[in-house]
Amino acid sequence: MDAKSELAAIKDRSRALIKAVNAPMKGFGQLSAAVKEPGALSTKEKEYIAVGIAIAQGCDDCVNFHVEVLQKLGCTREEFCEVLGMCLQMGGGPVVMNAGRALEVWDQLQA
After folding, report:
1. Which residues contact 68 (CB under 8 A, 6 or more apart)?
2. How far is 97 from 39, CA to CA, in rounded Å?
């Protein structure tokens, strides 16, 4: 499955989860919105952190989601690759595999 199809499936699963456990998901949504508000860091900088954590944790669904958000916020491929470099430095060998997958997602969503 390509990244665009995967992202659509992720969104479908999220909508189903919102219906199934509405109150907790509503709370999570409020938390998510609050922490992404610009402050000392911009929203884009906060998304760099989020995608870095997603890559380090190996959460492909999270990577897809945050890559899409970063692209909407105007992140360039060059900026994204610098984030990948930091992930590699901090995470070592296992993150190499996750970072390669993240770059593939970036390229597929950008197309």
Report:
1. 7, 109
2. 33
| Distance (Å, whole) CA 12 – CA 18 | 10
pTM of the model: 0.89
3-state class (DSSP) for residue 59: coil
| Residue carrying structure tokens 């690759």 | 81
In contact, 38 and 28? CB cutoff 8 Å: no
Q: Whole-angstrom Cα distance, residue 17 to residue 25?
A: 7
Q: Which residues, 6 or more positions from 97, have their beta carbon under 8 angstroms from its beta carbon?
A: none
| pLDDT score at 93 | 86
Q: How many CA atoms lie within 13 A of 52 on its CB side?
A: 20
